[in-house]
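Q: I'm writing up a methods section and want to include an example of the input and output format. Could you take the sequence below and give the corresponding predicted structure tokens, formatted cleanly so I can copy it straight into the document?
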Amino acid sequence: MLASQQSDIDGVDGRKEIDRLFDLEYGRPLDTALRIGVILCVGVLLYFYLGTTMPLWWIAAQLIGHGAHFLFLRSRGETCSRGEVLIAGGLFWYLVAAFIWLPAEMITAPDPALRIGGAAGIGAMLVFLIYRSDRVLTIMLGEIAVIGAAIAWVIFRTIQQIDHPGAILGTALAAVGLHVYFSLTLLAHRRMRIEAERAALRSVQAQKMEAIGQLAGGVAHDFNNILTAVIGNLDLYDAMDTEAERLNAVTEAKTAALRAAELVKQLLAYARRTQMRIARRDVGALLEQLQLLTRRLLPSSITQDFEAPPAPLWVALDENQFITALVNLVVNARDAMPGGGTLTVSARPVHLFTDDVQPDGTV
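A: Here is the clean output for your methods example:
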């Protein structure tokens, strides 16, 4: 229980958030290589254009930050505490600061080319932060603070070059307005993401309870058969002559009762919302559980065909969520075959060479 509480930060599972941050930053090798390549190219071009070592220090700060961020995200264990997620956020604050100080310096330069490049760099960072959409409020507030410090530095350097009080006031108000609207957009995006995740969870839970209602009739039938076996063996107990026959009757009754207990356990695990627990499971064994759980969901006009892998197929997954997803697929397949047919459920290893787009736009 303590580990579960520690891994939950602002309603987010710590391990899942660390995985999301890694996928966002380094999950697509081509995108990562492109971003690092742009940093190197821009830094080298500025080095030759300006004739100073400042762009080289900028490159070094970026590479050091990305190296530390990458290693930290990859070295986390199966469960991640609040502190680990916040450390990941702190490393990202460093990356934001290490990136934005050079565009902030450029935007105050008298050279129009440098000002345009600096504005483009700051704009790119603002857009990326909105796209990143951190769920943890503490991390998001830190990002807002870093951007605010960069904007304040730009205003401080700019007003030193302006003599007219009205121009100074207008520049300051424009910068404050930019920061305020950026902050509101970031917070609004976070709120929409939280609401979307909650709506998705409610939808999944509603589907599960609908399936539970449909399973109720089948479960009642199964329980009736199990209770018949239990009661029948116990009734025969007194009528049997030998101790071996009596022991066999008790064993049969106990086996039937254990089968009932397992059925209840599966049903409760499917119905309630539980903490995700990733573990190695054999998909073939899970398909056997699914067949037991869903056989009462299908009418006689639909034939079940469960094809387990010929060899054990080990996959790291959460058993309850896996069974839930498959039950929902079985229900959808049944509804798509009102005239009957054959429902085939099979599993085999497949190697994917393309990124899968997730509902929130990440891959």
